[in-house]
Amino acid sequence: MTVADDAGRPVPPGPAGRVVVVTGGSTGIGRAAALAFAEAGMRVVLASRRAEQGEDAAAEIKEAGGEAQFLACDVTDPEQVRELFATVRSTYGAVHHAFNNAGVPGDGRLVDLTPEQFDATFAVNTRGLWLCMREELRTMAAQGFGSIVNNTSVHGLRTVFPGIGAYVTSKHAAIALTRIGALEHARDGVRVNAVAPGPIETEMLAASEAAVGGATTWRGLIPSGVIGTPRQVADVVLWLFSEASGYVNGQVVAVDGGFLAV
Predict the structure, then answer these.
(1) Where is the secretion signal located (predicted)?
(2) Choosing from 70, 99, 122, 167, which is the catalytic residue?
(3) Is residue 11 part of a domain?
(4) Residue 69, C-beta contacts closer than 8 angstroms, at least 6 positions apart
(5) Residue 119: count of CB within 10 angstroms of its CB
(6) Distances (CA, A) of 116 to 56, 138, 245, 248
(7) In total, how many domains does the chain have?
(8) Mean pLDDT in each 10-residue stretch from start to end of the chain (262 residues)?
(9) What's the Cα-to-Cα distance from 207 to each of 56, 73, 204, 215, 228, rounded to whole Å?
(10) Is this model's pTM higher than 0.85 or not?
(11) Which range of residues forms the domain containing residue 88?
(12) Which residue, 200, 203, 173, 191, is CA-closest to 248?
């Protein structure tokens, strides 16, 4: 059966030509994912608060022969999120895939956090994720087709370190959003899954050195002792978008070098 979007246009059978939105697409895992999606022939929309880096990421994709554009968006602002997806729909007529990657750290012991610090972490990692998912699910359900991947963390599956309580809690909530989204829209032709990265070579990992020991501590916890790369996460997300994972829904795939097996 040929799948069509809400305007009656057939959805390409493979990734080439499909439209994907990447939040937090200016750096780290989001940027690597955007590049991987473009290499697969997808039309990429990068969204981020970091305009200069986002424009640079889009330019890098274009220089490599891919199709990309950058749209500034703060995922904590409902109107900006609504406008982001309205622009994508008006430009491309569809949103086939979304990688909800935007996230922030949340350092500090629970007893030391202020309400403002706790709320700031949840505003991006949980509420911002929900705001994006709300637009994505509405659009994809109307199309009768779509796949969403949320970037969570092994911290959402196992409490690894003390001292990052707001982050850990927000990632548990992100996994819950993934599962309820999958349940509510499975009959609409929409799949919702998540990746749960372990230690990955990013700015966030480098910044965690002072609080929890960063890569130094992680190397002692990973069976191989090797820190992962953003591209390794991106490749798993691309698989979750593909027909090869067509019967995978509501799942959290760890990309952690075997950490959760220990």
Answers:
(1) none
(2) 167
(3) no
(4) 44, 45, 46, 58, 91
(5) 12
(6) 32, 31, 40, 37
(7) 1
(8) 55 83 96 97 96 95 96 98 98 96 93 97 98 98 96 92 92 98 97 96 69 72 90 97 96 96 86
(9) 22, 23, 5, 10, 16
(10) yes
(11) 19-256
(12) 191
